[in-house]
From TrEMBL:
One of its GO terms (cellular component) is cytosol. Residues 7-224 form the Alanine racemase N-terminal domain. InterPro entries: Ala_racemase, Ala_racemase_N, PLP-binding_barrel. CDD domains: PLPDE_III_AR_like_1. This is Predicted amino acid racemase. One of its GO terms (molecular function) is alanine racemase activity. Pfam families: Ala_racemase_N. It comes from Aquiflexum balticum DSM 16537. PANTHER family: ALANINE RACEMASE, LYSINE RACEMASE. Keywords: Isomerase, Pyridoxal phosphate. Its cofactor is pyridoxal 5'-phosphate.
Length: 357
């Protein structure tokens, strides 16, 4: 059976480097745990790092975090649906919001539960996902800052998550200015300006982050060590905290081209035939993982000498050429993962999850 490993030493190294970066810049931050898909073992590893604030987009995951350590500040990081507000208020100390009606419902529920719920107002800065348009922000704030059992602790934004709009110094200066305007007009302090996610870290490293930005929500760079501007690993960090291990369940030499009448496969693809490959063969390995678990385009083979040919729902097919390394049935092939690949596997109940050192 295929299995995924989380290397706790590499995870700790990445965490410590990020912690030092943020402390040096006097910035508070929380760790985004949604990639872990509520896996209890992996959440415990995260909490054991000394994390004080965890963000997630699934309420059930926040419930597990509170079960493991009730002292962790939990943050719900997407607009909440009406039917989930009661659970969200129960398990999330903070939430990101951009809808007036929803915040009124949250206020009502917080009163029922006898809690003060903290809110970060999300502001639209160009990527066109969630966020209040800047022209309406003052009116929006005026309508919610006096709601009972609601405490506004920040303004935030999300970039790069939908249309790929990258953060810039100018966009983040604008976010900081909104905070200053609100504080002056309403004589209320807003502690956080939450600049965004891992994609904003390169601005901090390059000393291009406006001074008013003082809070981050970080996931991808923690788990993959990546600078998302240049698509490279940040010096001193690890890109292979996660590793997929898949076993060879068939190994045979076969023709490079299929034979027979071709139609669309179950994925709707029609294979194109390269006439030059007629009569040629190669060793093909079948691995015990498939599309149900991960899209092959998110897999990075540690052995760069073979080609991923494709996948069906439960099997991945490799072209090993002449099989120079002598792979055989029962051998394990290792892959590093892109973010969406790790997310798919972590969400799969068919792939074992293992801690390694």
């Amino acid at each position: 059976m295929a299995y995924l490993t989380l290397n706790r030493t590499k995870l700790r190294d990445n965490f410590q480097l990020l912690k030092e970066m943020f402390e040096k810049s006097d910035i508070s931050w929380g760790v985004v745990s949604k990639l872990l898909c509520g896996n209890r073992k992996f959440l415990e590893e995260l909490i054991n790092l000394g994390v004080k604030e965890i963000h997630d987009s699934r309420i059930s995951n926040l419930a597990k975090i509170k079960e493991i350590n009730p002292e962790i500040q939990t943050v719900y990081i997407k607009p909440v649906s009406k039917r989930n507000i009661a659970k969200m208020v129960k398990y999330a100390d903070v939430s990101l919001n951009s809808e007036l009606t929803t915040i009124k419902w949250i206020s009502e529920e917080a009163v029922k539960q006898g809690k003060t719920h903290k809110i970060i107002i999300m502001v639209e800065t160009g990527d066109l996902r969630e966020g209040v348009m800047g022209d309406y922000l003052l009116d929006f704030y005026a309508k919610i800052f006096e709601l009972p059992n609601i405490e506004i602790i920040g303004l935030g934004t999300n970039l790069n998550c939908l249309n790929g709009v990258m953060p810039s110094t100018d966009k983040l200066i604008q976010l900081s200015l909104y905070k200053q305007i609100i504080e002056l007009k309403f004589n209320k302090k807003i502690p956080w300006v939450s600049a965004g996610t891992s994609v904003t870290i390169p601005l901090m490293l390059n000393k291009q982050l406006p001074k008013g930005i003082n809070h981050f929500r970080v996931g991808e760079t923690l788990y993959f060590g990546v600078d998302l501007f240049e698509e490279k690993i940040i010096d001193g960090m690890h890109g292979d905290v996660f590793e997929l291990n898949a076993e060879i369940i068939e190994m045979q030499e076969k023709p490079l081209l299929p034979s027979g009448t071709l139609a669309a496969n179950p994925q709707g693809e029609i294979i194109e035939i390269d006439q030059q490959l007629y009569g040629k063969s190669s060793f093909r390995a079948i691995l015990d993982i498939g599309l149900l678990d991960v899209d092959p385009k998110y897999l990075i083979p540690e052995d760069g000498e073979f080609e991923i040919l494709g996948a069906s729902s439960d099997m991945l097919i490799l072209n090993l050429g002449t099989n120079p390394k002598g792979y055989k049935v029962g051998d394990v092939i290792k892959f590093n993962l892109k973010y969406m690949g790790a997310l798919g596997i972590l969400n799969s109940s068919y792939v074992d999850k293992v801690i390694s050192d």
